[in-house]
Amino acid sequence: MQAPPLPPQKSNNVVLWVVLGVVAVCGCGGVVVLAAILFPVFSQAKLAAKQSQSLSNVKQSSLAAIMYASDYDEKMPPAEKWIDLTEVYARNPAIYHSPASEGPPNERYGYAFRAELSRKDTKKILDPQRWAMIFDSTKTGRNAVGGLDTLPSPPRFSGASSSGKNTVGFLDGHAKMIPLNGDLGATGSD
To answer: Does residue 125 fall inside a structural domain?
Structure first.
């Protein structure tokens, strides 16, 4: 006598579904963890790119003003027309627009020319490497003029890795990022 055949067993896919669920959760969690790691890195890279662009803009603007002075008996441009008069010395008019300034691109400039240097004879300035000339400013219009008191506070370039810096171009043509409490050179007493 032969035993009756066993009824067909239901296939139990619970283990398969658990494994798939764990892989899916870990995969999504991995994406979240990866995003949490990468977003700050992208943010820092974007800030660094804006700082670099601003530094380049201010250096080129400063050199354009120096070229203007060399063509006009070593006299700096009138402050109220500094962009209008130095733009011919710049290859790209976009250098007068700060990448960190707020507003529509065609209206946002963000740099100011130091009022004390308006029409000043550069031959009479003893330490041009100490004279801040073009800098980030709270005045954002075209041909903005001001003193160092118009530097943005908090600085335009503040990030998680920096305490904040503004871009400043000097009368000798160099430019650098300076902390708000940093040494901005001569105060106009030359």
So the answer is: yes
Domain count, the chain: 1
106 pLDDT above the threshold of 50: yes
Give the pLDDT score at 154.
Answer: 85
Instruction: Judge whether 91 lies within some domain.
Output: yes
How many residues in total does the chain contain? 190
pTM over 0.70: yes
The verdict on residue 188 lying in a domain is no
Check whether the bond before 105 is cis (ω within 30° of 0).
no
- pLDDT band of 190, cuts 50, 70, 90: very low
CB 173 within 8 A of CB 66: yes
Which residues, other chains included, contact 178 with Cβ-Cβ below 8 Å and sequence gap of 6+? 165, 166, 167, 168, 184
Contact of 136 with 167, CB cutoff 8 Å: yes
| CA atoms in the 13 A half-sphere facing the CB of 44 | 8
**C-alpha angle 151/152/157, rounded to 5°?**
115
36 in any annotated domain: yes
How far apart CA 179 and CA 164 sit, in angstroms, is 6
Residues 159-189: b if buried by 16+ CB within 10 A, e if exposed: beeeebbbbbbbbebebebbeeeeebbbeee
The residue segments making up the domain with residue 158 are 26-179
